[in-house]
Specification:
Elements: E1 33-37, H1 40-47, E2 52-59, E3 62-69, E4 72-78, H2 83-98, E5 99-100, E6 105-106, E7 114-123, E8 133-141, H3 155-168, E9 178-180, E10 195-202, H4 223-227, E11 231-232, E12 235-241, H5 244-254, E13 257-267, E14 272-273, H6 278-293
Helix pairs in contact: 2-5
């Protein structure tokens, strides 16, 4: 049931042209299926596969292209880096889908989006090869974004969070890890052997939060060496990245389907990095677009 309470101007900020504050787009500019990427340059790469592009916009690091491929309307949008940016993008995408901007009230008819993150990550298991494709069955958030929302954690999610905190010897000064499993059936499109599936760690930064030590000491030194031994109901921690926990948590709360599929451009266990990973990104783009637009 829609909420008839009017949302204040300081809570839902609109631009003079009627677009939403950060994304700079209007409700009609968003397709039901949205591909999210971190890098603004990757938006152009993905939309080059479209049969046609009908709309383009950009504000700061957020670039949006909407078009059609195989008669399916798609939006591709860059979020920039980090779970804090996902907080902005997810809330504004949902507002575009489910809030009437004229009355500033929630719409009577709910619109559910499919939100798929296509990104890069660092593999954490010795058997994860460079350029491997990883699907995030769970996200373990080290970022803290979801602690600001009243999320109804399932027993399974709470069990994973607690098991990881015990295993890692989590420091009392750090935000408590939280586990999220995405709702919906998007993951069923990635059931073939092309993909590794498991747990993804979402970090609030690239260096210390992912165990990289340059000149500064770490709160949890040696954690990365331990991570390959963690097991939760047969699921391993496969990779690090910086967005998925917020994507899954906010998506679940707002009623949207979400999924993250990443290329492993590094292996943290073997200290390897592939500078020439763009070919793998193109391969993943082609596979993802085929799965999202194939006729049922």
């Amino acid at each position: 049931m829609a909420n008839s309470k009017k949302i204040g101007e300081s809570e839902l900020i609109l631009n003079p042209d009627g677009t939403i504050y950060h994304l700079h787009i209007a409700p009609e500019n968003v397709a039901d299926t949205v591909i999210l990427v971190g890098d603004p340059g990757r938006v152009e790469t993905i939309s080059s596969y479209f049969d046609k592009v009908e709309f383009k916009a950009q504000n700061r690091e957020i670039k949006t292209h909407t078009g059609v491929l195989n008669k399916v309307r798609l939006t591709v949008m860059s979020t920039g880096m980090g779970a804090d940016n996902i907080d902005i993008v997810l809330n504004e995408l949902d507002a575009l889908a489910n809030i009437n901007f004229e009355t500033r009230t929630v719409k009577e008819k709910f619109r559910s989006l499919r939100l798929i993150r296509l990104g890069t990550s660092g593999g954490l298991q010795p058997d994860i090869p460079l350029n491997a494709f990883i699907v995030s069955e769970y996200a373990l958030g080290l970022d803290g974004v979801l602690h600001f929302y009243d999320y109804p954690f399932s027993e399974d999610e709470m069990s994973l969070s607690e098991a990881f905190a015990r295993f890692a010897g989590w420091h009392k000064n750090l935000s408590l890890p939280y586990a999220i499993k995405p709702k919906g059936d998007l993951i069923n499109k990635f059931g073939d052997d092309l993909f590794f599936k498991g747990i993804t760690l979402t970090a609030p930064g690239f260096y210390g939060p992912q165990g990289r030590q340059l000149r500064l000491p770490l709160t949890l030194p040696g954690l990365n060496d331990k991570l390959r031994h963690f097991d939760f109901k047969g699921k391993r921690i496969l990779n690090y990245e910086m967005e998925t926990s917020a994507l899954y948590g906010l998506g679940n709360m707002l009623g949207h389907q979400t999924l993250t599929v990443c290329v492993a451009i590094a292996n943290r266990n073997r200290k390897e990095y592939n500078q020439n990973y763009k070919e793998a990104i193109h391969s993943l783009i082609a596979i993802l677009l085929e799965k999202l637009t194939a006729s049922k």
